[in-house]
Structures are given as structure tokens and as C-alpha cells.
Automatic annotation (TrEMBL):
Residue span, BON domain: 66-133, 142-209
The species this protein was found in: Thauera mechernichensis
A Pfam family that the UniProt record links to this protein: BON
Protein name per UniProt: BON domain-containing protein
Span of the signal peptide: none
UniProt keywords, alphabetically: Signal
Length: 224
């Protein structure tokens, strides 16, 4: 039961105000994502932003850039082949490609994996596209809001580095990608599962040992 506004103590009122501001910020983030969602174009990080992202990523810098290239190529080929008859979002992580979205029929659905497999350097395909009508802009905005909320809760939880887990949401289903330890995977899945609006969590992780995680996180390492 919601507490009447007049019954809120000063500290509770401040917390409520903070919550409202945070909701507004998440809503703005979702709205700003809409143009990208409409075109199904992946965002390529550039300049200082890309450098910062690479430093905190467990992928090599070469693989990071390669994943961006794979997303562009796969998205372009799907768009060229099917135009607006499909809504397919492409996420490449460590050269494994996750497909989410909608296809009009099983025939189109079956062609998608072949398109991905034809792109150079792809290691594997996880096809989570479903047969059905393309999602609405409202549904996509809601998914973007869920993604933003899950990422924010990763940071608040402080149980692992939020940089190590990529979040993709489709139809209220959250997909988690990353190169992580079992402990990190369990923590990320728990935070995502308990986030508002999440219907289901799907793990698309690559698992490493604690020792390997420490090695990859060592900024003085020679792997880059």
C-alpha cells in the first residue's frame, strides 16, 4: 500500500523525490534510444568513450572493435534482405552473435542464422528471434527503460563490475552477456530477475575462473 504523501517523514520524502528524478532520467534515456531502435542500427562508440569502454572490458581491444563491425555487417545484411518486414536486433559479444526480435514466419527465421554465419569472424549464433508481428515503438521504449534500470541497479548493487555484463531486453526478457565468473553471473542474474518489469532472464555468458578474471582485470597486463 502506498503511504500517503502527508505521512512521509522528511527522509522518506527525499528518497521519493530522488526516485522520481531517477525515473525521469531513465525515461529520458529510453526516449533518446527510440531513433536507434527504429533503424535497428548498433551504436559504435568512438573517441574517448570507446577508449574508456575498452579499458574496462574483458575483451581485447581488437575483439571489442570486431564485435562492433560484426553488428554493423549483420544488421546491414538483414536489412538488405528483409527490409522492414522484420525487427531483428543484433548484439555481438566476443564474436558470439545474439539475435532478438521478431520475424514474420519460420522461413525468414531460418534464414537469419545463415546470414550471421556468412559474416567473417563470427564464432556462434544464439537465435532468440520469435515468429510474430514487429514490436511497437511503445514496447521498444519499455524494453529500453528496463535495460537502463537493470544497468543502474548493477551499479547500485556493487556486487560486480557493471562493465562486465551487457544487457539486452526484448519483450520484457532480459538477456545477459559477458565474460564472467560463476559468482558474477549469479549476482547479475539475481539483480536482473528482481528488477521491475522483467519477465524472464536469459544467461548468454562465457564463464571464466576467478584467477582468469583477475588476470583480465589487471590493467598492467600485456594482453592488449
Amino acid at each position: 500500500m502506498k503511504t500517503p504523501p502527508q505521512a512521509l517523514a522528511p527522509s522518506a520524502a527525499a528518497a521519493t523525490a530522488d526516485g522520481r528524478r531517477r525515473t525521469l532520467l531513465l525515461g529520458l534515456a529510453a526516449a533518446s534510444t527510440l531513433p536507434l531502435l527504429q533503424g535497428c542500427f548498433p551504436v559504435v562508440a568512438t573517441g574517448v568513450g570507446a577508449g574508456a569502454a575498452m579499458v574496462s572490458d574483458r575483451r581485447t581491444s581488437g575483439t571489442y572493435v570486431e564485435d562492433e563491425s560484426i553488428e554493423w555487417k549483420v544488421s546491414g545484411r538483414i536489412r538488405q534482405r528483409f527490409g522492414n518486414t522484420v525487427n531483428v536486433n543484433v548484439t555481438s559479444y566476443n564474436r558470439n552473435v545474439l539475435l532478438t526480435g521478431q520475424a514474420p514466419n519460420a522461413t525468414v527465421l531460418g534464414e537469419l542464422e545463415g546470414i550471421v554465419a556468412g559474416v567473417e569472424h563470427v564464432r556462434g549464433v544464439i537465435n532468440e528471434v520469435v515468429v510474430g508481428p514487429n514490436s511497437t515503438l511503445t514496447a521498444r521504449a519499455n524494453d529500453a527503460l528496463i535495460t537502463s534500470n537493470v544497468k543502474a541497479r548493477f551499479v547500485d548493487a556493487k556486487r560486480f563490475s557493471a562493465h562486465h555484463v551487457k544487457v539486452v531486453t526484448e519483450a520484457n526478457v532480459v538477456f545477459l552477456l559477458g565474460i564472467v565468473t560463476r559468482t558474477e553471473a549469479d549476482a547479475a542474474a539475481e539483480v536482473a530477475r528482481t528488477s521491475q518489469g522483467v519477465r524472464k532472464v536469459v544467461r548468454v555468458f562465457e564463464f571464466i575462473s576467478d584467477d582468469e578474471a583477475r588476470r583480465l582485470d589487471n590493467p598492467t597486463g600485456a594482453r592488449r
